[in-house]
Amino acid sequence: SQQGEEDPQALSIQEGENATMNCSYKTSINNLQWYRQNSGRGLVHLILIRSNEREKHSGRLRVTLDTSKKSSSLLITASRAADTASYFCATDSSGTYKYIFGTGTRLKVLA
Amino acid sequence: GAGVSQSPSNKVTEKGKDVELRCDPISGHTALYWYRQSLGQGLEFLIYFQGNSAPDKSGLPSDRFSAERTGGSVSTLTIQRTQQEDSAVYLCASLAGTSTDTQYFGPGTRLTVL
User: Fold this and answer.
1) Which of A12, A50, A54, B30 could bridge to B97 as Cys pair (CB 3.0-4.6 Å)?
2) CB contact, 8 Å: A87 with chain B?
3) Distance from CA of B101 to the nearest CA of A (A)
4) CA Rg value for chain A
5) Which of A30, A42, A102 sits opposite B106 (nearest CB)?
6) Is there a contact between A5 and A102 (Cβ–Cβ < 8 Å)?
7) What are the tens digits of pLDDT across the range B16-57?
């Protein structure tokens, strides 16, 4: 079964609004990564947060990690139509190289 | 300097035929993953190669699936006697070497089994 689960499964917002998506996982991790996927093809890495970090920023992206709750959130501020994509979290089990991807959040930003 | 490439980009085959999917990782990357993604789903881990170590094949769904990596570079995923449930996008990713590295994904191969 998938380690990571994102919610919501789908999100539709207006351009300029903020989008928040969440990821929950089950086991201890070394790090958690967020990826973006356009049109069901290759994934693009967005941001990595390590287990000893609580918050990280990259441009319009803000990621938080709560290891006590085994959850993470991705915030995209001032969304654009070009942000329309599926977003996945990926977690590694501590001490392993095996990443488990969640089922993704499909974000649609309306112009 | 190119990224990860995969071929073919699309493959349509008949049930029962064998298919080979190819992945060319980023030069110098020692680790390589294969994933499968069914329509509207997340990524399912299939197999992992790291350097010269024995691959982790624990994600392969059946013995019809196999993969090899020649010379620590190019990888081929082979599906024998394809079934309709094998229809999916097969994604390859490479990374420089440690579990904390970013995975760089190829564009995927969309496999359709009729």
Assistant:
1) B30
2) no
3) 9
4) 13
5) A42
6) yes
7) 999 999 999 999 888 999 999 998 788 899 999 988 888 999
